[in-house]
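Progress report, Aim 2. The chain analyzed during this reporting quarter is listed below.
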Amino acid sequence: MELHIVYEDEHLLVLYKPAGVPVQSARVGVKDCESLVKNYLHAKNPGKGAPYLGIVHRLDQPVEGLVVFALTPKAAAGLSRQSAERRMEKTYLAVRHIVDNLGVDISNSQNPCGKPPENVEKKVENWVKRVDYLCKNGKENRSEIVPPSHSGAKKAVLFYRILERSGDWELVEIRLETGRHHQIRVQMAGMGTPLAGDRKYGPAHVENCVDNVDNSFPALCAYRLKFTHPISGKCMKFEIKPQNPVFSTFLSTK
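Predicted structure tokens for the chain:
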């Protein structure tokens, strides 16, 4: 795998992570971003020994997008603090399918998330605030929307806005307030609008209802990243175009 470095200085490195590549993996022989970046840094300065690399935040393995790594302990502390205090702004693009328009019962087994009565939606200008409670099932590596009183339930909050519509498909921009397991995928499916290509949370029979769907990965990209440089204090903002071909339905003219 070739590294797609978007920005680099002596303190930090921003790269594009392709869908299917983990940020960090404990499995032997699995190529992950951490080992690839370390190999790259070592090749640049072979006489300095093992390079320092701080993992500040992660993206789920099936999700493509921007990731920032710290190259010094001081930068790691500053970036991690911003991430923990939710001052690091991560914005996503997704393509979702309006299942309700096809007459699909979203409470059935094809969409186990369902629509809980406890959810909350509130419009903030043209953004909509979505609140659910999620519970992670570690054995099946999935999360489900549950009542707030459910054992292990954690509050999940995101904001979204619809940028474009094409038939039963929508291009959506999303900002996370919390960072729960599979949060965007679960909450979108819970609204009856699963992501294109999401075989874990979406109905299988709608996978080919739009051109260029890559059924290997959900149509979700962390396309914009904004934070304050931990050393200089400069505002850092990066943006990429998603590589999943389903986005070309909406982004070909942009």
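The radius of gyration is 19 Å. The chain is about 15% helix and 35% strand. These observations will guide the mutagenesis work planned for the next reporting period.
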